[in-house]
Amino acid sequence: MNEPNGYSESTENKKSGLSVAALVFGLLSIILSCCGVGVFLAPIAILLAIIALATKKNGKGFAITGLICGLIPTILVVTFVIAVSSILPYRNDLLNDYSRITQEQDTIFAEYESTGQLPDFLQKYEEEPFKSFLAKYDVTIYTVMDSLMAAHKQGTLKTFSVSGSGSGTLEIPASAVLISVTA
């Protein structure tokens, strides 16, 4: 059928607005994942794609692509939450002990290097549940201490302090602790 502007538009080529919107939101959710916005756009993409597919509108390819693009950031966020959730029970101990290590690093590492013994406040990492927690990431407290001492010797171990609420900004040099995340 001819339109007033002379172009003909078949219903097969017509794309559903929902399918296009699902694709746009899906692509934006991937692109904006790096700044955290993608996690909010992904559910919109998934919802629009499901509605477009359920109503059997044209643009099925766009809807499927939007669905897949929306699922990618969602899967990444779920994976991250699962990985981080294993650390949460130990968060305060880890932050407080790391804070103490960085604040007293000259004394702690001089003694550790000469005796090979852990400071008293770190002995708990040789016992359960901390030992199992570290083993999950295929490290021991000695591996961590050796890595932190190497960072200390290089001058890259920055002082870190924890506020009264047990939170703070934690900067651990990438070379300090190499942990493979296998949750």
**Counting H and I runs of at least 4 residues, what is the number of helices?**
7
Average predicted confidence as pLDDT: 83
**Alpha carbon gap, first and last residue:** 58 Å
Main β sheet profile: none
Helical residues, percent: 55-70%
Count of discrete structural domains: 2
Q: What do you see in this structure?
A:
The protein has 183 residues and is mainly α. Helices cover 56% and strands 0% of the residues. It folds into two domains: 17-85, no CATH class; 88-183, no CATH class. Helix 1 (17-31) packs parallel to helix 3. The longest helix has 26 residues, at 60-85. The radius of gyration is 26 Å and the shape is elongated. It contains seven helices and no strands.
Structure, briefly:
The chain is an all-alpha fold. It folds into two domains: 69 residues, no CATH class; 96 residues, no CATH class.
List keywords for this structure.
183 residues, disordered C terminus, 7 helices, mainly alpha, 2 domains, single chain
List the helices and strands and how they pair.
Blueprint: H1 17-31, H2 38-54, H3 60-85, H4 91-103, H5 105-115, H6 130-136, H7 141-154
Helix pairs in contact: 1-2, 1-3, 2-3
